[in-house]
Specification:
- This protein is an alpha+beta fold.
- Among the domains are: about 1-200, Rossmann fold (3-Layer(aba) Sandwich), CATH 3.40.50; about 555-664, Serine Threonine Protein Phosphatase 5, Tetratricopeptide repeat, CATH 1.25.40.
- The protein is about 65% helix and about 5% strand.
- The chain has 31 helices and twelve strands.
- The strands form four sheets. The protein has a five-stranded mixed beta sheet with strand order 5-2-8-9-10. It has a three-stranded antiparallel beta sheet with strand order 1-6-7, with no helix packed on it.
């Protein structure tokens, strides 16, 4: 029997819910909501729901995680994740407000009282939200010594009653409460925060999983999950996080020395941290225990390839093919080795062979996509997009890259929009909180219809990604749907303001001011600022760009304009602040780096300025703007020789983090 338990932080009254952060065209069919928990167990309900989301299947479909957002108590506050038991009446309340995802057939929810005093309770229910009918339910006492078994058996049984599968028993069924608690907290920390667009706390996830391995050294799930997250941390460009992952793996390996997953992860992490010799030694040591493990052979090859020893890398691949077969992992590394040796055709063949074994193997697919973008291969790009359209089981990153390819190569129109809607909706079924996918499909739906769904998604992006560049673009898209004629006129005014002769600028500026008075969208204020800046009205332009940011704090164009203007009017601190904010919002590009470099020169920060200029010249040694900026720096009395890396750390880490975030 399902009850709404009156624990603090559980009831909707005590944890007011403003929205479920989930959306798809007709919505995901199956949804799990974070379980209600006592106040001192916050995080456990979301962690348990995350496990159900990761492994649950109903009628062959994924179970989406619909996170709850608490209602902010003040306008300045952002919504935060809430854990609240959901029943049919509460779901109906969300539907009436338009905050529940559409087309949901099954909602899974419940209450979880941890066995802190030796005994706890798990209540689980699955219901049809349209009728309120309970489809399956379970309740069990949770004892500390058998906590994993009690939780897993109850959850697995509820899924079996609905004809689905979950199989938590094979993953956490052997765990006592201390280890299970660590895993639940880790999953809570690792799940994406819909407000910030990234995991809640990667560092905490690593710490909790390391503790889980310590408490349950034989748990393969804890070890493999730690390995995965540690490798993910190493790919983010955050040295501190990568080193934390390295420490967590080292401790876990000491606790579970026979676990090959941990040994393999240590080798991969050493490689990501630049320790190629240590990585090769670790991989060879693991291969001595498991010679048929293809990923280890690929790691040996990658370590040697990174050092430039291509013959030895080829030898590692050949040995891998002999002992592990022509595995997709090995073929992907072989393709990378080929392309770095200058053989793009051989690389393409290797990656396509990898896809012949696994049609949407993510590393091979992503490498082929990158090759298509680099070589402007329209045929290859179309083939990859077609592949993504043929299956519902593609990895989210594969679907995301397929949308990028469609946007890059296909002509704008209804056909492209329809394909983007289909791929984007598949992505949203896997990752309902993917703000980028919501925005891409909202733009496409504004062409294909229904327009109401496009509006809803634009609004959801504004809510979930407030103060970001995505939110600014969503506001722009929303205005195009609501007032297409005015939106087109504002866009045309911006274009004219950027390119018109000076004699026409006063008239253009006047029209921009009139549009800004009539319409509250940020693009109108941006048009005013651009026209006034070109007229030489620095004070008025500065004010217009600041008002643009009042309407859209994530507007990258306004931050770049303000950075340039601030440097010109001797406000160097403001110039650097706006330039760094533009870099944070938009990622590393020639434009954001140039503006940041100009601001740093104006602010008399030569070390950081040289670092930025070095980044620009590394991308293009003949970049005229970067060379002019270097000349400005060298002509100043401040110009030092290139500083040692130790003095560049803070900005270097930020650049690496921004660059990697937008490259992934």
């Amino acid at each position: 029997m399902f009850h709404q338990r009156p624990h603090a932080g559980v009831s909707l009254r005590e944890a007011p819910v403003t929205a479920l952060t989930d959306a798809a065209p007709a919505g995901p069919r199956f949804v799990v909501v974070p379980f209600g928990v006592p106040e001192d167990g916050r995080g456990l309900g979301l962690g348990l729901a995350a496990l159900v989301h990761h492994f649950g299947r109903l009628e062959g479909d994924n179970v989406a995680l619909a996170q709850l957002l608490s209602r902010p108590q003040a306008p300045s506050e952002k919504p935060t994740a809430a854990e609240a038991a959901m029943n049919p009446a509460a779901w109906s309340e969300l539907e009436k407000r338009g905050d529940a995802p559409r087309g949901v057939e099954v909602v899974i929810s419940g209450n979880f009282e941890p066995p802190e005093g030796g005994s706890g309770l798990l209540e689980l229910v699955a219901f049809d939200p349209s009728s309120g009918k309970v489809l399956a339910s379970g309740e069990t006492t949770v004892l500390s010594a058998q906590a994993g078994r009690a939780v897993a058996e109850t959850c697995d049984r509820v899924f079996r009653e609905m004809g689905g599968e979950l199989d938590l028993a094979s993953r956490v069924g052997e765990l006592e409460w201390e280890a299970l608690e660590s895993i639940l907290y880790a999953e809570r920390a690792a799940i994406y925060d819909p407000v910030r667009g990234e995991p809640h706390d990667r560092m905490a996830a690593l710490i909790h999983l390391g503790r889980a391995v310590e408490e349950a050294p034989r748990s393969r799930y804890a070890a493999s999950r730690l390995s995965h997250l540690a490798l993910e941390a190493a790919m983010l460009g955050d040295r501190r996080l990568a080193e934390a992952g390295h420490r967590a793996l080292a401790r876990a390996s000491a606790d579970a020395p026979a676990n090959i997953d941990l040994l393999e992860a240590r080798a991969a992490l050493e490689l990501r941290l630049g320790s190629t010799v240590e990585a090769e030694v670790a991989a060879l040591s693991a291969l001595a225990q498991s010679p048929g493990r293809s990923r280890l052979h690929a790691l040996v090859s990658e370590a040697r390839r990174t050092r430039g020893d291509f013959p030895a890398a080829n030898a590692a691949i050949a040995e891998g093919f002999t002992k592990a077969g022509r595995d997709p992992i090995l073929l992907t590394e072989y393709g990378t080795l080929q392309v770095e040796s200058g053989d793009a055709i051989g690389a393409r063949h290797a990656w396509l062979e990898a896809l012949s074994f696994s049609p949407l193997f993510p590393p091979a697919f992503l490498n082929l996509a990158a090759l298509a973008l680099r070589e402007r291969d329209e045929t290859g790009a179309a083939s990859l997009v077609d592949r993504a359209l043929t299956t519902d089981a593609a990895h989210p990153e594969v679907l995301r890259r397929a949308v990028v390819l469609a946007l890059a190569f296909e002509p704008e129109g209804l056909a492209r929009a329809a394909r983007i809607v289909k791929i984007g909706n598949l992505l949203l079924s896997h990752a309902p909180n993917d703000v980028w996918a919501l925005l891409a499909t909202a733009h496409a739906l504004s062409q294909t219809g229904p327009k109401e769904e496009a509006l809803r998604r634009f609004q959801q992006v504004e809510r979930l990604a407030a103060d970001t560049a995505l939110a600014a673009e969503a506001a722009r898209g929303l205005f195009h749907v609501e007032a297409p004629a005015a939106a087109r006129e504002i866009d045309e005014t911006i274009t004219k303001a950027l390119s018109a002769e000076r004699a026409e600028l006063e008239l253009i500026a006047g029209r921009a001011r009139a549009l800004a008075l009539e319409h509250g969208v940020w693009t109108a204020k941006l048009a005013v600022g651009i026209a006034e800046r070109r007229l030489g009205l620095s004070t008025e332009a500065y004010q217009a760009f600041e008002e643009t940011l009042e309407r859209a704090p994530g507007c990258v164009e306004a931050h770049l304009e303000l950075a340039t203007l601030a440097a010109e009017v001797d406000r160097p601190v403001d110039a650097v602040a706006h330039a760094e904010r533009a870099l944070e919002l938009a990622g590393e590009s020639r434009q954001t780096l140039l503006v940041l470099g100009q601001a740093l020169v104006a602010a008399r920060q030569p070390n950081d300025a040289r670092l930025v200029i070095d980044r620009l010249l590394a991308a293009d040694a003949d970049d005229p703007a970067a060379l002019r900026l270097l000349g400005d720096l060298e002509r100043s009395s401040l110009a030092p020789p290139p500083p040692p890396a130790s003095t560049r750390g803070k900005l270097a880490e930020r650049l690496a983090r921004f660059s990697d975030r937008f490259r992934r």
